[in-house]
């Protein structure tokens, strides 16, 4: 079974934010700049689209358009994980053809939130999903305030799904679960983290294959990872701790996270607008000020060690 490139070398597989113009339409030029900037900055792969892409607010046609554009700009330079999550298995299957079309390394489907309360439906759901393609499947175990799938459920899924290749763990707490999954399923099982990026050094210590954060801060993420991978854990930890105020602020909730990183991408000259489709978030004079201060902190860090020195 094919393995992700990052399976052999722990890395950063980032979620690509979706740029919109002032009227809320998809901005293909900004997306092209985002992909190119991330590759030049040292990203190890992409996940597209996913929660941070505002995927719930994209049309089916837009999802196809975005994936194809990303694949064209990427031109096979780094592996792509196709995000195909939806509440209905039949909806997930619609995107299966894209995995072959763009030669995706894998595709990712999240456990629908309601199924955590109906565990007998989880295996049938993924059996139906995975029947659409032989492309390796990664399950996104996302429960913002819960423990998600247990080991027994994962064992059942592995036995039932021949193409299951790994898991993206986004549960509370994440760290011990990384270790439990690695010990049970071995080194060939792909393990990634995401929302727990404020615990990234712990994740690396526990042997995750990849962290899947957003894409605005790849120059700094890549510098930290380079330190860690070349044996300088102390400097990686020091640099990571200096980034933590940004991560702590942005991990309060997903709306704030998307808004902050879109603002940062505008400041970096990659996005033209910071338009969001996700409803419900607003800036006020307090969080607006903190966000601007933290963006200045980010630029200080990028200027200091964004070159991997």
UniProtKB/TrEMBL annotation:
<dbReference type="GO" id="GO:0005829">
    <property type="term" value="C:cytosol"/>
</dbReference>
<protein>
    <submittedName>
        <fullName>L-2-keto-3-deoxyarabonate dehydratase</fullName>
        <ecNumber>4.2.1.43</ecNumber>
    </submittedName>
</protein>
<comment type="similarity">
    <text>Belongs to the DapA family.</text>
</comment>
<feature type="binding site">
    <location>
        <position position="212"/>
    </location>
    <ligand>
        <name>pyruvate</name>
    </ligand>
</feature>
<dbReference type="GO" id="GO:0047449">
    <property type="term" value="F:2-dehydro-3-deoxy-L-arabinonate dehydratase activity"/>
</dbReference>
<dbReference type="GO" id="GO:0008840">
    <property type="term" value="F:4-hydroxy-tetrahydrodipicolinate synthase activity"/>
</dbReference>
<dbReference type="InterPro" id="IPR002220">
    <property type="entry name" value="DapA-like"/>
</dbReference>
<dbReference type="Pfam" id="PF00701">
    <property type="entry name" value="DHDPS"/>
</dbReference>
<dbReference type="InterPro" id="IPR013785">
    <property type="entry name" value="Aldolase_TIM"/>
</dbReference>
<keyword id="KW-0456">Lyase</keyword>
């Amino acid at each position: 079974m094919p393995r992700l490139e990052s399976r052999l070398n722990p890395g950063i597989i980032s979620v690509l934010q979706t740029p919109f113009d002032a009227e809320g339409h998809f901005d293909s030029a900004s997306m092209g700049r985002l992909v190119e900037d991330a590759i030049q900055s040292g990203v190890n792969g992409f996940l597209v689209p996913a929660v941070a892409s505002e995927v719930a607010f994209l049309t089916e046609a837009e999802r196809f358009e975005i994936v194809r554009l990303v694949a064209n700009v990427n031109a096979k330079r780094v592996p792509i994980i196709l995000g195909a999550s939806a509440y209905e298995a039949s909806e997930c299957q619609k995107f299966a053809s894209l995995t072959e079309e763009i030669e995706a390394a894998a595709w990712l489907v999240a456990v629908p939130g309601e199924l955590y309360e109906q565990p007998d439906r989880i295996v049938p759901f993924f059996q139906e999903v995975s029947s659409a393609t032989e492309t390796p499947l990664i399950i996104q175990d996302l429960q913002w305030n819960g423990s998600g799938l247990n080991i027994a459920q994962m064992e059942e899924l592995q036995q039932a799904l021949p193409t299951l290749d790994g898991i993206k763990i986004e549960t509370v707490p994440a760290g011990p679960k990384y270790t439990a999954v690695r010990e049970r399923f071995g080194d060939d099982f792909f393990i990634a983290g995401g929302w727990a990026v404020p615990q990234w050094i712990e994740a690396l210590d526990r042997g995750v294959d990849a962290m899947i954060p957003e894409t605005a801060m790849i120059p700094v993420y890549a510098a930290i990872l380079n330190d860690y991978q070349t044996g300088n854990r102390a400097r990686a930890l020091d640099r990571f701790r200096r980034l933590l105020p940004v991560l702590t602020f942005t991990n309060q909730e997903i709306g704030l996270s998307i808004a902050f990183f879109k603002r940062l991408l505008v400041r970096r000259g990659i996005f033209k607008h910071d338009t969001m489709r996700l409803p419900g978030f607003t800036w006020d004079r307090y969080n607006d000020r903190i966000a601007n201060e933290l963006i200045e902190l980010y630029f200080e860090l990028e200027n200091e060690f964004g070159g991997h020195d």
